[in-house]
Amino acid sequence: MPSHVPIQDSARSNPGENPGEPNEPNDAVDAIGADDPLGRERAHLASSRTALRAMRHDVESLDITDVTGNWVNAKILAAEIDDRIKALSDLADTPLFFGRLDYLHAPGGEVAEGAGGEQFYIGRRHVHDAEGDPMVIDWRAPVSQPFYRASRTAPLDVRLRRRFGYTGGDLTAYEDEYLTDPPEGTQEPGTSSKLLQSEIERPRVGPMRDIVATIQPEQDEIVRADITGSVCVQGAPGTGKTAVGLHRVAYLLYAHRERLARTGTLVIGPNRSFLQYIEQVLPALGELQVKQATVDDLVAHVEVRGTDSAAAATVKGDARMAEVLRRAVRSGIRMPTEPVMVVRGSRRWRVPVYELEEIVGELAERDIRYGAAHDALPQRIAHAVLVQMERAGEAPDDRVQDAVARNSAVKAAVKSCWPAVDPARTVLRLLSDPDFLAASADGLLDADEQKTILWAKPARGLASAKWSAADAVLIDEAYDLVQRTPSLGHVVLDEAQDLSPMQYRAVGRRCSTGSATVLGDLAQGTTPWATASWAEALAHLGKPEATVEELTAGFRVPREVIAYATRLLPQIAPGLAPATSVREAAGTMSVREVGEGALDAAVLAACDTALEQEGSVGLIAADARIPVLGAALDAAGHRYVSPGEETSAEARLTLVPASLAKGLEYDYVVLDEPAAVVDGEPDPRTGLRRLYVCLTRAVSGLAVLHTAPLPAALSTP
Ligand SMILES: Nc1ncnc2c1ncn2[C@@H]1O[C@H](COP(=O)(O)OP(=O)(O)OP(=O)(O)O)[C@@H](O)[C@H]1O
């Protein structure tokens, strides 16, 4: 952590002694006395706000009637303008700038958005005055980067870094770090930034916030990594993986706006409540166009109404299924046995078997999609007819070729050699027809595995099939075999450790020509097929060249709590580095055994105690315990919400099923009966990993209550 001078605030500010005076005030701040640095910064804030309002007003008053030729263009332009107006709104609770950099020299014209000035205010978006001079520089601009990266050892030409503190939208404090030539008496080497610390320690309320003011250097490296490469981040709970992924999208949209506007960006999260938890971060950063989805959403070709046993889902998610499906899709390809006879007028044209064989053989060899080959085959046969016509002295044109391709004899030949494939029907047949599965899975799945995935009661048709989530992924793979899935420009995949190889493939084809940011923690893998190594996962994703980074500095979980949860690591993910906690507040942690029959009341009492504190409270329990605890809370008159629902002053308590706790956080967590959380999973290792996730949701305090014995690693004092 770089050194700093003590925090200045409105109450304590001592102008005469203040070492952090701006060195090149602009006109607006000149009007305020030079002996009132905080006042000058406030004046800059006020004039930046005015400038932003003017920018917004300019956009609002744009008249587009003359520039849009038609209704569609007008609609598109109006929507773009609407987004721009939203992006330029001045949100009362998000300060316009949070930092200032005083450069020693004017940064080079090619990198500086505001070249020529030496002082830059860093904020969420660019604000300029009426002359076009920058008042606030976007945090993503190259000139802002030293705010996150500069240090005393590598000052990057920065003399002073100033951080601002806000209280309820008012600028109330600032803090300076001199990176080069510190004035006498201003350095306290080794002391951490108080504003940074208070931002990290701030109580959590509502959905996730952006961390743009406090991105750490190791996080910034990932955020600003080049768009052409894919990055994978392994990180212990609370190390900021989700935050980094979201800020990376915002950064890439800034740096490659046009390219990504064309190709699109997507953030993939584990479930809907998680997506609701993170959905406000990008809009707060001015980015309104990023799509969010779960993997299930991506592959929603059929309605999912069924579930699989863990064993069946594991086989269905295995990468070998890709080859099983390839064979199944192509199982209808037949070498022709009859010539094709096309009758046109008084003439007959005959394409002999050997020539048809050549055409079909060549299409089968080529690396093109099944559907593309199906569409090409009639044209190829027609071409063979056309060659004969030309040889006979005719001069057929393209229209004749199209007509021949549509000829019933050609159609019949295509139907018998290269029949159309319906992806869902193919999967239905695989799961219902033992012979078809055996033929497609020969040498890939053994007899037991085949039996495991076959439906006990074969579905009669597409509509009555009880598709599972894993089936939908198979159908998606089959779709891609028939027709290439369009690729986006960039995909962020959060909680990636839980995906099956087939799910990685489904995500991978959505960024086949783009890049990916893969975020996860091997220790939090709670599916029976969870990722064992990132190298393997990245290979399934089709990005084997991605670099793997590790984050270990934890911003969420207090030291004592992370130490307790870390006891599970040797059993659930040996070899992984435990998280360290950067939180200074010690937090509270208690583990209490209660007698038979007294657990529900004890849990409610623990919630009451937690609710006495400021911030959010999460009661986390095994999924099977949720109805019981919900009823107990109702009976006691407690208001509570479910994950993904917004908390309010009256309902600060969220009742969280263990299966939905991943990625979320609460100031205080009450954890009900750990043994039930473990038992809720199909095997003990997955159970302990689920418990690890639940134990690492707390920001300020954790209370564990149990009647059943704790898992061995947690039971010793
Ligand atoms: N540089 C930072 N400054 C301030 N807060 C931060 C920083 N990095 C992360 N945080 C905060 O720490 C908390 C945890 O971050 P996040 O949810 O991104 O972690 P994670 O690694 O995805 O956790 P999990 O593995 O549990 O999903 C969030 O509240 C986030 O805002």
Automatic annotation (TrEMBL):
Gene Ontology MF terms: 3'-5' DNA helicase activity; ATP binding; DNA binding; hydrolase activity
InterPro entries assigned to the protein according to its UniProt record, in alphabetical order: DNA_helicase_UvrD/REP, P-loop_NTPase, UvrD-like_ATP-bd
GO (cellular component) term, any one: cytosol
Biased composition (Low complexity): 14-26
Keywords: ATP-binding, Helicase, Hydrolase, Nucleotide-binding
Biological process terms in GO annotation: recombinational repair
Keyword Hydrolase: yes
Gene3D superfamilies: P-loop containing nucleotide triphosphate hydrolases (3.40.50.300)
Binding site for ATP: 235-242
Domain UvrD-like helicase ATP-binding as annotated: residue spans: 214-558
Chain residue ranges for the region called Disordered: 1-34
Name the UniProt record assigns to this protein: DNA helicase IV
Organism: Actinacidiphila alni
